[in-house]
Design brief:
The structure holds two protein chains of two kinds. By secondary structure, chain A is α+β, with helices and mostly antiparallel strands. In chain A, 47% of the residues lie in helices and 22% in strands. Chain A has five helices and three strands; from the N terminus they run αβββαααα. By secondary structure, chain B is of the alpha/beta class. In chain B, α7 links the parallel β5 and β6. Classes of the chains: A alpha+beta, B alpha/beta. Chain A binds chain B through residues 1, 3, 8, 11, 14, 17, 19, 31-42, 58-63, 65-66, 101, 107-108, 111, 115, and chain B through 307-312, 315-316, 326-329, 331, 333, 335, 346-347, 350, 382-388, 396, 401-404.
Amino acid sequence: MAYSDKVLDHYDNPRNVGSLDKQKRSVGTGVVGAPECGDVMKLQIEVEGDTIVDAKFKTFGCGSAIASSSLATEWIKGKTLDEANTIRNTEIVKELSLPPVKIHCSVLAEDAIKAAISDFKSKQEEKD
Amino acid sequence: MKLPIYLDYQATTPVDPRVLETMLPYFTEVYGNAASRSHSFGWKAEEAVDTARNQIASLIGASRKEIVLTSGSTEAINLALKGAAKMYAEKGRHIITSMVEHKAVLDTCKHLEKEGCEVTYLKPDKRGSISPQQVAAAIRDDTILVALIWANNEIGTINPIREIGAICHERGVLLFTDATQAVGKIPVDVEADHVDLMCLSGHKLYGPKGVGALYVRRRNPRVRLVAQMDGGGHERGMRSGTLNVPGIAGLGKACELCERELEQEAQRTLALRDRFEAKLQSALDHIHVNGDLEHRLPGCSNVSFSYVEGESLLMGIKDIAVSSGSACTSASLEPSHVLSAMDVGDELVHSSIRFGIGRFTDQEQVDFAADHVIEAVNRLRDLSPLYEMVQEGIDLSTVDWLAH
């Protein structure tokens, strides 16, 4: 299985690995995938106003899944929630040169972003 | 120590230098067709083949007349299953096998099902083993063949072939066993073990690729097969085609070496495997060794590293050549059918790595591999949301996953 240099780079030097305090009102947490499928991504965002000021991830999955989620956290930092919501998996595929058999990893990463944003938004509605 | 290190001995083995030396003359000096009866080129080639037959037969406790030479185990399996199904079709069309066989057996059985055979796939226990009782219960009046693997290529589990063979003989059913991983590694005796048909492959026992054999019993009972390769009637009408003399000479020599060194090699590889597993167990929590820990090939170690996915682990140990049961490592995106059938749990299947120790593995390599695996697992667990949840005391089986 030949990996692109970018996938290898994200694997060897993953960006933004870790966790944010999910109890905080400003943190949105998205967990997608399932252990039985061999893919679980946890992606968290810290939001100030409208902007994602920090993002962290943890992934159980193959090299492409790790790279996809690592890249996702890189891209969403500094973006507004609306901007982050427009990130498409196809952009991830292009950036990482993912082969067809690994496209589903990018889809999961897109789902993780949306799940984190959705969790953040529903937290704002709750507390009000 | 040369990198990368090869620890995938169940996938294939390097040709032993002594085997290569034996093969070389048959390419350019003794190059006759073994079927050429009219000149010394042919006679010399035939002699080499006869020697090899004796060597192969000796390793497995058979007579040289019972050895049919093929291009490998896959061909031998096709010959045994299809050949027997056709030959004994009047007697019955029921075959018994297991869910953890090699694809060569499973795919051939699927083919036979399309041709009207009925196949029972026995489910193994948690260790991957099939019991004699299961086989006895499955045998019917129209059963003609039981096909069970001797030693499993993925997890190393050794089936109780002798007991199963005794039952088959009692009930008048033929026993075919895929002994590809067993021959040369553990004692195999077709008489004592009640085997009627058995395949072996050169490249799994330090011989060349592209050559193997099918043992076909001649007495008590005499087994007959419908040939799958027609064209000249070679190998007593069971497998036509010019013999691969250099390959066969190599296979014979490889068998001779295995017979001579079997016991000491088994002990040596067992010690290395146990050392490897002990290192992992002492440094890592939440790991699970798959297979039958008591009845296992000495050189096989299939380990699941919980909360770490197999392919990502392979990426982290790229100086070590091994394989994984994870879906991500298969071309079809299907996880290991062997581990899945054993009900170890899908998540453990995706976290499994198979390490194969062999003749050219030494302690330095084993220690290096263990250290690197431990390092990679720890690094990946830092990245793992599952490990994090477990550390927090969450029971993963209670979580509602948002799978898509």
